[in-house]
Amino acid sequence: MAMKSVWITLLCLFVIAEADQGFDVRHHLSTVTRYSASKEVSQNLIKGSNVPSECTPIHLNLVARHGTRSPTKKRLREMENLSGRLKELVREAEASEKVPGWLGKWISPWQGKVKGGELIRQGEEELYQLGIRVRERFPTLFEEDYHPDVYTIRATQIPRASASAVAFGMGLFSEKGDLGPGSNRAFAVTSENRASDTKLRFFECCQNYKSYRKAKGPAVDKLKEPVLDKITASVAKRHGLNFTKQDVSSLWFLCKQEASLLNVTNQSCELFTPSEVALLEWADDLEVFILKGYGNSLNYRMGVPLLEDVLLSMEEAIKAREEKFPPESYEKARLRFAHAETIVPFSCLLGLFLDGSEYEKIQKEKPLELPPQPPKTRDFRGSTMAPFGGNNMLVLYSCPAASSPKYFVQVLHNEHSIALPGCDGKDFCPLEDFKAKVVTPHLKHAFDNLCNANLDDPEKKHQSPWSWLLGSSQKTEL
Ligand SMILES: *[C@@H]1O[C@H](CO)[C@@H](O)[C@H](O)[C@H]1NC(C)=O
Ligand SMILES: *[C@@H]1O[C@H](CO)[C@@H](O)[C@H](O)[C@H]1NC(C)=O
Ligand SMILES: *[C@@H]1O[C@H](CO)[C@@H](O)[C@H](O)[C@H]1NC(C)=O
Ligand SMILES: *[C@@H]1O[C@H](CO)[C@@H](O)[C@H](O)[C@H]1NC(C)=O
Question: How many domains does the chain have?
């Protein structure tokens, strides 16, 4: 009997070890995940495309997040503080054999760095390679000579987004110019003023959203608190250090940066077990859900000007073709570079990552349940929706005149074809259906009404009746 339970225990240990071996923390970093790690995962999730071979792409819309960037200035200071704090903890510790060796000696790899938030080398590479892949995938769209009206490149005024646009363009137009050994060519990247950029920085132009976000911050922190409490206790016990919640929160931030930016997974990330990482990732995703995603319809409806811009660009391309304009005279691609705050709402407007019943709820303006806690699985994941360099492409196809309908839209999420719940689960959606079922239902919400109508209007108050009770929260731009 005793022998049997030993075997069972051993078997369990073996199974757990096996499961851990398959676990790669780099896939669980919410919106700090690298594009390459995210793509590996989504390759398994998203099925191949089924575009009929007789249909040709005639226009491309891209909405991309900037590539991997360094931590912001405030976070750099937090990491410098952490270094001193860890030394203090190690000094106080009793059971020193449990304390990881690196911990007392750790100094921030960004020590002395004054400025943060910029696109780093790995981020340049991500967007540069994406540009090359897009050109290779759609050769007919990129055979025209460059003209700023044919290939429109737009970025927000934030430098990591415009630098991402430049890196992408260098890939897209490499070997097409006369500049330097790479035969580069110059191209234009234009930006709206950040205060009025309703297409790419609607989250900054929308007063009601800003109020919502500020008011909701403390409630989000409260929601995440039990996870942090639980993990703080178990991490402290396991490593024999008297960690506070703030310490553990900073260490999780450090883990994400080390794993993502430095490809180091055997240091701070090793403080956490895989199931703790899964919980911390979920807590991050909850915040994305509530403040940027399906958690509140305002989060994505304020992105309607972007959705309209996408549709308009398609209609203009069709009109130009049907009126037989010369091909070099009209737009082939509209390429946009922005933020997680842009692409998460944009994915929500498209209804991505919802199952059929959730999509119906959204349409009936009923709230969705929060993404379920691990070990339950969920579709709403920051690591998939908005990794660094994460993107949605909407490819407009023209099919032979004999077939009806003639125009179709394919959505590529991180370069993989994805089914649209709003288009009866199709991944090759007739343009008319795309317009009628996916876009039009959103158009009844005018940006100005949603965003700038007076909040004191009693009809609006029901959205968050208790929000005024709660204080302010910090702004965390992704
Ligand atoms: C760093 O530590 C100082 C002193 O404890 C504190 O006042 C400051 O808020 C901390 N900064 C960050 C970014 O955590
Ligand atoms: C751990 O820290 C808390 C406050 O941060 C303190 O009250 C407690 O005495 C400390 N425990 C040990 C064992 O040092
Ligand atoms: C990151 O580290 C892993 C080993 O843990 C290695 O296989 C991989 O090539 C590294 N990636 C980069 C981009 O350096
Ligand atoms: C992590 O791995 C690297 C490369 O294998 C090694 O040099 C380093 O000492 C390891 N760090 C820790 C804290 O184990």
Answer: 2
